Amino acid sequence: MLIRFKKSFEKIAMGLLSFMPAEKDLKQLQSTIKQYETDENWQLFLWKQDEDIIGAIGVIFKDEETVEVQHISVNPSHRGQGIGKQMVNALKDMYKNKSVIPNEETEAFLEKCRSNDEQNN
Predict the structure, then answer these.
(1) Domains and CATH numbers, the chain
(2) Alpha carbon distances (Å) from 102 to 29, 114, 115
(3) What whole-number distance in Å separates Cα of residue 114 and Cα of residue 75?
(4) Using an 8 Å Cβ cutoff, are 44 and 60 in contact?
(5) Which residue from 30, 48, 63, 70 lies 20 to 30 Å from 14 (Cα-Cα)?
């Protein structure tokens, strides 16, 4: 289940985002979290399964019709279970009337999700 990021989840969110290649540096990571907290066009969602938060997906609202996925991360002990794909699908459901697109860092993952969907149909 996708839940909106709240300040009380900051440490968990930072831990999850730190798995993204561009967020390895602590100062960069702190800057990214601050951007999610202060910029209304940046939204961070966390994936809650049972009682644990095990994933994060962050988006930027590019314009009225476009949502760009800029971060997606799953706790390493939960990878390979389709959690990332569930987060992408939940995001697409949430923004049915918008186009959900990747950025450079998330492009390969979103493409993989898309090709898996096509194989299953």
Answers:
(1) 2-120 (3.40.630.30)
(2) 20, 11, 14
(3) 22
(4) no
(5) 63
Q: Yes or no: say if 56 and 73 are a contact pair by the CB < 8 Å rule.
A: yes
Alpha carbon distance 2, 93 (integer Å): 11
The pair of three-digit structure tokens given for residue 26, joined into one six-digit string: 């602590």
* Residue 90 near residue 74, CB atoms below 8 Å: no
41-82: pLDDT as tens digits:
999 999 999 999 999 999 999 999 999 999 999 999 999 999
CA atoms of 46 and 59, how far apart (whole Å): 12
Identify the band that residue 87 occupies on the pLDDT scale cut at 50, 70 and 90: very high
